[in-house]
Design goal:
- Four copies of one chain form a homotetramer.
- The first copy, chain A, is α/β, with parallel strands linked by helices.
- Chain A contains nine helices and 13 strands.
- In chain A, helix 5 (144-149) links the parallel strand 6 and strand 7 (154-156).
- In chain A, helix 4 runs parallel beside helix 9.
- The longest helix of chain A is centred in the last third of the chain and has 24 residues, at 261-284.
- The first copy, chain A, is globular, with a radius of gyration of 21 Å.
- In chain A, 44% of the residues are buried.
- Chains A and B meet through helix 8, strand 11 and strand 13 of A and helix 8, strand 11 and strand 13 of B.
Chain lengths: 298, 298, 298, 298
């Protein structure tokens, strides 16, 4: 394999002396080179200070003698994860490990608006989003040609209030069948039930409004009526409290009194696309740690 | 007088054919040169489309023959305003006229934080804010030396819940005595009563939060707890619904998970200053038309 | 016809008293309602003050009696333009008139990068860019499938230094054959000759750099080497002085020391797309007046 | 002492395995808690990859047994620095160590414009800039009252081409006498000679233009003439190549065709103040590593 294979470790722990030294020391002893690292200690966390770290190591070191010596004779990804897990436990830490050649499969849920869908597909094709788009799913057939032109499987599952439980069950089954690890709501104009969210992999939503300012429907009409001078978009993990999930990314654009709701919608659409793609990228690069209502993006 | 004297006209009217032509034609016939003009038609206004215009004319033309001919023999500011008022009435318009040499007096209300106060004073001194700062008023003596170093009268009127009606009455009396036409709340940490607002000239407030997201107290602590990625500030006219008055200007700055509430406060303070000064400037340059909850800033 | 048909007038003239009144009065007398207007007087222009105005009128009024009376019996677009042209001449003004149902045809020139091409096509399809994309032309076959998936004619005209004169001639012929009125260089990695520019309709280029900071090739590598903290993009009319044409739109994004040239390129690509589409839109909405090296965007 | 005393370590080294582990391990063994850390590896550096790290440790640990054991019986700041220096040498690293209670003295050089001077003083007073303003120095007496109102020593040293060598010598003597460690050029309208820069402590300059776009004089007039849509400011270390020193911070603001040079100057002044104060703060918080023409701001 030409491109080097890395593993990303995300760690969250109660703050304590020596954390950086012990985590970095673990990889040093195992002969695994750290190619990128960042950490943050939050003294304001409720209860007690919290420590967060993201470490990227080069897995090429697994084939060197130091790794075998440290990881017990057989230096594999599995033994690496087991050994790191033991360290994490001793620190009271939660962690996640992921190799960069273990490409995540994602599902994109849409309705009729093609803007965010094209944007995500093109960024994936250009190498900007490290994932495989396993399927596009919609409650309308409108965007089938878009998926087809990129040879991505497309599923149309119409939904009515009466059929929503059944339809959501089908969506979950499709996600399971395709081994989907992330669901991206790219202007999917349906409220998801708690049941769905409990059974689904992580879900990232783009809210076309600057949360928590304009929750609910038609935020640009709300923004116009309120005469705001900036509009924004918010990408967040979907949770059962609609529009209240942990925020991953936000941005704004300037508007004026001269713009009606349609013009604000147009300006907002550009912000939405940028914000959604940045959030999906941060998630796929394993940069996001969720801590209650907040995210730490390392 | 060296600098040319202009008059600014602000007009709001139901939309109708020929408005620009009739308004511009009025000044053309009177021999008054239009040095700046901008207008906006809002088709989304409730009820029916609304028209807004700001026109700046050079009053030097008042001494030319055309003016006398049109304005009835005696071309003065008063006869100009009377004639324009008649036109406005015929169009169903509301309007305001103000000469640039008629410098507005303002009062700045503060508590203990000097940042916004210094900012406003320095901008006024540099010619950026066309006004006279008639007085600085506070419920604390802390900032008296600041006002004194710029030779601006300073009044300290402490306030308790019991004395608030009496204190507000004194504030209104001071404003009246100094012919104050605009009150700027530059981090004045007191809620004003409806009684005060009804008796006062226009009041501009800076809300250290991105309205309507974080209303009420300690918005930066709210922003931290919610994990937002942007914080902002909003300058608005104070109305009896706290934090709900017409928005004049807003801006934001980017924050990260690494910033605690104090750091967010520091970043926010810079945004507050910029936003407040821009709003005060727009008001003083007679650019702001209030229409219900919205402003048109021409 | 359901959607109202408007005409946009762009005017540039030496400043003189009564311009707004005379221009607005012209349409008022002709019974044509002004639905949008903006103007600007630049006192800093070399030589003498210059006046610029954009006026949008509703052509529905052409069928009313007032129009016939004013425009000489036969109120048509042609007689309207003739009458307006006579007024413009009397004011020493240059002008352009264009009806909104007279949709401009554009050509998009690309090489291999699909990002800007997709962006322009999708915005055109969503109604954001009022034009018809008559052809996509490239010196490489790479993007033919993109054009095909949207059923847009695609021409591949390879070019070498030796064949450039001939290839440019073919490009000009294709533009003429398709009645192209605007050429958009959407990452067309070829320098155009003066001969081409003299024979071509207006050409808008996106420069992936914040002009005039980083001219020439590989601006993101220059930006990295210089350690800048912001990168930007500039959309401008192409002129014979490479990268020196009148600027239509610019924007920037923040970068850090942690970004290498590739990451800067990725961030820059988003800025490029936004800036190019805003510039093309401003041109198509007839908002741009070129005055020497500067543009006035009304 | 109530506030905890920290020490900031800045390290630059050739990249090599185990750097984070060895640096963090050093402090862990010495019983010094790391309260903040960030690092960056630049694979694009000329020659070979470079590693940069900023580590903030709590000096309270110096009085604990672990420190004495590790630092050789006598755990002092001096022995800590000696031990760290030995480690740095073994890694081929350069480093700097600074305790937060060792407050830097700075000199602010101005001419007549008070905006940046007030801004820096007020930020220092509010605790935002961890330094002592030892003196304000100008070639004009204009701003003496400003310095006096804050009880800061003010020196007026007029300068002509003929007296420049002598005047610069006096400036250097004043800086030495006041133990100045940073010189801030807050709109000091004089070009400094190489001789001065060689003898002076680090000098931060604010360039009122978006380097490298508009170098030299009157950048806002250049910006107007070129019709740019954004203007900016750049804070950089002064080097003998005027306006070519390593950039610390930059920002921009949007401008339009409607702004003349004066209005651009006003908008630019706000950007200048923000950018200069951010750069000075980053320097004082020991976040800036200079590497050739670039800075790494950790």
């Amino acid at each position: 394999m030409i491109a080097p294979t890395h593993a990303v470790f995300l760690v969250a722990a109660p703050d304590q002396p020596g954390l950086v030294a012990r985590l970095a020391g673990f990889f040093y002893e195992a002969g695994l080179n750290i190619v990128d690292a960042s950490n943050h200690t939050d003294p304001h966390a409720e209860g007690a200070a919290r420590f967060y770290m993201r470490i990227v190591v080069d897995l090429a070191g697994l084939s060197a003698p130091a790794a075998s010596a440290t990881l017990g004779g057989s230096a594999t990804r599995a033994s690496l994860e087991a050994a790191f897990g033991a360290l994490a436990t001793s620190l009271g830490a939660t962690y996640a490990m992921r190799a960069t050649d273990d490409v995540a499969k994602i599902a994109i849920l849409v309705t009729k608006d093609p803007a965010c869908l094209y944007d995500l597909i093109l960024r994936q094709r250009s190498g900007e989003l490290p994932c495989e788009i396993a399927l596009v799913l919609s409650n309308h057939p409108t965007l089938e040609p878009v998926a087809q032109s990129f040879r991505i499987p497309f599923y149309c599952l119409p939904v009515t209030p009466a059929t929503k439980p059944e339809q959501e069950k089908q969506v979950l089954e499709l996600c399971a069948k395709h081994h989907v690890e992330l669901v991206v709501l790219a202007r999917y104009m349906q409220v998801l039930t708690n049941g769905f969210l409990e059974g689904a992999p992580p879900v990232i939503n783009i809210h076309h409004g600057f949360l928590p300012a304009f929750q609910g429907a038609r935020p640009y009409h709300q923004a116009y009526a309120r005469g705001v001078k900036l509009i924004g978009a918010t990408a967040h993990y979907a949770t059962k409290d609609l529009d209240e999930g942990p925020i991953i990314e936000q941005d704004v654009a300037r508007v004026t009194h001269a713009m009606g709701p349609d013009e604000m919608t147009r300006v907002g659409r550009d912000v939405e696309r940028l914000v959604l793609s940045r959030a999906v990228r941060a998630h796929l690069e394993r940069r996001v740690i969720v801590e209650g209502l907040r995210t730490i993006v390392l």
